[in-house]
Design brief:
299 residues; 2 domains; Abi_system_AbiD/AbiF-like; Abi family protein
Length: 299
């Protein structure tokens, strides 16, 4: 009989002070114990480890000579600022994308297009039943909102509010998956062209990647030295190609291109530039950004 390699977890918890002492013994330079302890308490050593583990010797766990806690602090703060800018930018795009989709499909089909099976070509992963169930659930959770209350006070048929109302309830992920199963290529083309993309498949991959990025950022995921689980397609007509398609730079380029198409106020590029300037110890390459990124296609 094979012997299990699993063993009970026995590692004890450590105080921030104990953890700081351990880091110092591993060669970390700490100019201010007070500052380091504030981060170990307020951010947590386990989360901070995501910003230092890659520079440690895998066997001895020692830091390179002269490696300073300031390097860790700057990585943490840059990541936090970029994540906040990402949430703001994707929020702008989420509202714009769902507005364009809801408006086009309502005008082309009906205000209750999501109840019309003929306009969809379902897949095993996302069918009409799942889509309608998602709408029902989200509307149910939103019954306390004034605009949902108003519909049910005034109407009982159709049994759900119109598209422009449900768009304020359902998640970005629903819009991405629903775009993918639209049956008429003209629906997809019209929506994608509103964002300056004349290849619906490219736009489909972009909005799917945006949902992944949004979830990562919203749940405090680390962006430095992380490869996203999906890769946005390149857009040759726009000159947009990616050497590292799963890097943050790739999806950041998509965000910038789409934001520019909305004509709405946004701070994405300026926010990134300001953050890179504020934390000079962190190479932009840790987010996949090349030298001269400001003039790359899509920017």
């Amino acid at each position: 009989m094979a012997t299990s390699a699993l063993r009970p977890f026995t590692k004890p918890a450590s105080t921030p002070e104990q953890l700081l002492q351990k880091l110092k013994l591993c060669g970390l330079v700490v100019a201010s114990d007070a500052q380091a302890l504030a981060y170990l308490r307020g951010v947590g050593a386990y989360r901070l480890k995501g910003y230092w583990h890659q520079v440690q010797d895998p066997v001895t766990k020692r830091f390179p000579a002269g490696y300073d806690f300031e390097d860790i602090r700057q990585r943490c703060e840059l990541d936090r600022e970029v994540r906040a800018a990402t949430i703001e930018a994707v929020d702008r795009l989420e509202v714009a994308i769902r507005s364009v989709m809801a408006n086009h499909l309502s005008l082309t089909h009906s205000p209750h297009w999501f109840l019309e099976p003929r306009i969809f070509k379902p897949t095993e992963q996302w069918g009409i039943g799942k889509m309608v169930k998602k709408v029902e659930d989200e509307v149910g959770r939103s019954k306390g909102k004034a605009f949902i209350k108003h519909y049910f006070i005034q109407h009982d048929d159709p049994y759900l509010p119109p598209s422009w109302a449900i768009s304020e309830c359902v998640s970005f992920g629903m819009w991405s998956r629903t775009f993918a199963i639209l049956r008429d290529p003209n629906d997809k083309k019209t929506i994608a062209k509103r964002f300056g993309v004349d290849q619906p498949q490219t736009f489909e991959s972009w909005i799917h990647a945006l949902t992944v990025l949004r979830n990562l950022a919203a749940h405090h995921g680390q962006l430095l030295n992380v490869q996203l689980g999906v890769a946005p397609a390149g857009y040759k007509k726009g000159g947009i190609t990616f050497r590292q398609p799963k890097s943050f730079f790739a999806i950041a380029t998509v965000v910038n291109y789409l934001l520019n198409q909305t004509g709405l106020p946004e701070r994405w590029k300026l926010a990134l530039s300001a953050s890179f300037a504020a934390y000079p110890r962190v190479p932009m390459s840790e987010l996949g950004f090349p030298t001269g990124w400001e003039t790359a296609p899509g920017w």
